[in-house]
Amino acid sequence: MPDKTITYEELAPGYKFPPAVYELSASFVSKYLKAVDSVSDGFVPPLAITACAIAAMTGSIPLPTGTIAIHASQELEFFKLVPIGDTIECHIGVAQKIARGKMSMLILEIEVFDKGKEKVQSGRATIALPT
Amino acid sequence: MLTEIQEGKALNPVVRHITQEKINLYAEASGDFNPIHVDESFAANTPLGGTIAHGMLNLAYVSEMMTSAFGRSWLSGGKLRAKFKESARPGDTLTINGKIDCIEQKDDVPYANCSFECRNQRGEIIVTGEAIIKLSSDKR
């Protein structure tokens, strides 16, 4: 759900969205693997974890009405494998906000931690918001 | 996994066909129901003219190629940078290719620097990028 505590206009570099928690259940992993035509190797695919983080991110952005969000670029770094059944916590923050004519860009930083608070992956996403 | 890791080596390509059903499955799995992906009538009235696949679905295919080549070295020590150049749409067939550009030593640890690209059936680049994998000693 979009972060109701802030509007898009108020988003500024340094802003942190409320963390999102996901349980990486066997049924979630199975659904993900089916969607990406892949098979299990006993761990949660790192891109499945990123998918949760991106969903948390795009769901959190309080977009102006009628705006579509387009994923323009993505950086990722994987630090450790996560067993199926674990819980992760996704932290999303605003790194940059750029306005160029009819295009706005949000650069967001993503950090994902496991239940032991160890970093699982980090990344940076650029979201284009044509108006 | 690759039996031999050397500069210039091509990674085994991954080919995937995109359908609206797969996009919907990805939306359900990821929880990303942005209407540009799943609402055909909404998407038809945007500048994109129709639904598009999630960028992360395309990137999942890139990760599959990297996993197939490097196994756990990728899963727990990989790094990537990707640009989504064009949208993948229902009906597209995507081919993901990659190769090892160079192998570098940093503090006596070998790293494979790879480049990759994802093209549709018309040869248009959908995703392009680079990946770095920290190689364990038994990988060379």
Task: Summarize this structure as a short list of keywords or feature phrases.
heterodimer, A: 131 residues, alpha+beta, Thiol Ester Dehydrase, Chain A, 5-stranded antiparallel beta sheet, 2 helices, 5 strands, 19% helix, elongated, B: 140 residues, 29% helix, 33% strand
Q: In a nutshell, what does this entry contain?
A:
Chain A is α+β, with helices and mostly antiparallel strands and 131 residues long. Chain A has helices at residues 26-35, 46-60, and strands at 20-23, 70-78, 87-100, 103-113, 119-130.
- Which radius of gyration of chain B do the C-alpha atoms yield? 17 Å
Question: Could you name the CATH topology of chain A?
Answer: Thiol Ester Dehydrase, Chain A
Name given to the CATH homologous superfamily of chain A: Hotdog Thioesterase
Secondary-structure element sequence of chain B?
Answer: EHHHHHEEEE
Shape of chain B: elongated
Give the biggest beta sheet of chain A. 5 strands, antiparallel
**Poorly predicted spans of chain A:** none
Structural class of the helix and strand makeup of chain B?
A: alpha+beta
Overall average residue pLDDT of chain B:
93
The N- to C-terminal Cα distance of chain A equals 21 Å
Q: How would you name the oligomeric state of the polypeptide chains in this document?
A: heterodimer
> Portion of residues in helices of chain A?
10-25%
What is the secondary structure topology, with strand pairs?
The complex is a heterodimer of chains A (131) and B (140).
Chain A: E1 20-23, H1 26-35, H2 46-60, E2 70-78, E3 87-100, E4 103-113, E5 119-130
Antiparallel strand pairs in A: 1-3, 2-5, 3-4, 4-5
Chain B: E1 14-17, H1 20-30, H2 35-38, H3 40-44, H4 55-70, H5 72-75, E2 78-84, E3 93-106, E4 109-119, E5 125-134
Antiparallel strand pairs in B: 1-3, 2-5, 3-4, 4-5
